[in-house]
Amino acid sequence: MFGLTFDKLLIIGVLAVFLLGPERLPGYASKLAQLVRTLRDMANGAKTRMRDEMGPEFDDVEWQKLDPRQYDPRRIIRDALLDGPDAAPKPSAPGMATAGVAAAVSAGLPGGRSTAQVVPLATGEVPPYDSEAT
User: Is the pTM here over 0.70, yes or no?
Assistant: First the structure.
């Protein structure tokens, strides 16, 4: 939790004993315990209130999907450009761009739907250059 190991907690405890002294340490320890209890009660109260307001749908929500650590910008962009997460096209050659994304970018159409075809360049052929686009 927060990258704290037993060694680090022990060092923090020893420093607290030296900085606060034996007279004030019990008072601060009880205040810390009270703060932890208050925060835990607030979190449990918020969870109970949310459960009461949402009703039976609270148990149906997949909370794992709402975890911000699951955020993957590449997947979000791919899903936005293509029809769905399973519709990812596979490039036919290592140097060739994917057909859906390249067509969407070149045609300027949302969703990757385009009538333009992606044609691979011949060996040594110079790719087209648009001086107004750059």
Answer: no
Dihedral class, residue 55 (left if φ above 0, else alpha if ψ from -120 to 50, else beta): left
Helix axis angle, 73-81 to 99-107, nearest 10°: 70
pLDDT digits (tens, 9 = 90+) for 57-93: 877 888 787 777 878 888 888 888 887 555 555 554 4
Report the C-alpha gap between 21 and 17 in whole angstroms: 5
HEC readout, 26-94: HHHHHHHHHHHHHHHHHHHHHHHHHHHHHCCHHHHCCHHHHCHHHCCHHHHHHHHHCCCCCCCCCCCCC
For residue 51, give both structure tokens. 């459960």
